[in-house]
Amino acid sequence: MIASFIDPGVPVVVFWVFVGAAIVIQGISKSGFAGGAGILSLPLMMLVMPVDKVAATMLPLLILCDMNAIYIHRHNKVWDKILPIYIPAIAGILLGALVWWKIGREGVQAYAVHIKRFVGVIAILFSIYIMAKETAMSWVQHAKFGRKTVAAAGVAAGFTSTIAHAAGPIVGLYLFSQNLGKTLFVGSVAWTFTLINLTKLPFYVGVGLIRKDVLLFDLCLIWLIPIGSFLGKWMHHRVSESVFNRVILVLTFIAGIQLVCNVNIIRWVFGAVLPAG
Q1: Are the C-beta atoms of 206 and 97 separated by less than 8 Å?
Q2: How many CB atoms lie within 10 A of CB 114?
Q3: Is the pTM of the predicted complex or chain greater than 0.85?
């Protein structure tokens, strides 16, 4: 079963290093650094896995992380701010599901490079976002978003989340602009992504992304989430968020460039000394 999740020519050790690191980073991000670093997980996995398997594998794990987050923040939410971006996100989710349905009918391989490049561009843009995060936050704090702007942001969030689980900057900037305060902001972000990810789930099943083999593979990875969560809580008080973000920025940018250029330097280096799986 595992063999179908490994890209041809990828050494087994390299596969587990990349996938394991991606899941642990997701746990660290969710529990220690406000969730943003999780953007690195998808590009890392796409360097060693088929693109459709990556998106499918991540969704159930993200939902588990979301359930933990909304339990912690079960009282910290503002529906008047969440619903204006979530409701139009449903349209974006439908568009994203339509894209996956089309890919499924015509064959993943025909679109694999295009999807990798899309994710690569998102990764590069997110790297720029991290670099300019303080400036962006300062700008949106004084910005006034009309209904049309929020609706457009919601559609974009739903689409990018469905294709690449990468709506973090869009949702984060919108909710930050609402001046909710730290606790309500973090809680509202958690609830927004829980709604988006749960809405995506039936469409992922419907277009054939999530199947029994994906769920079994997720069972092999679940134990890495609490490890990441523990590390995130430990690092939160010991590692500067700015330093952590810079490391994530560099790694995300490198992974994004490799996906856009359809090359894999890191995998090639590992593969030179390790047998393929």
Answers
A1: yes
A2: 12
A3: no
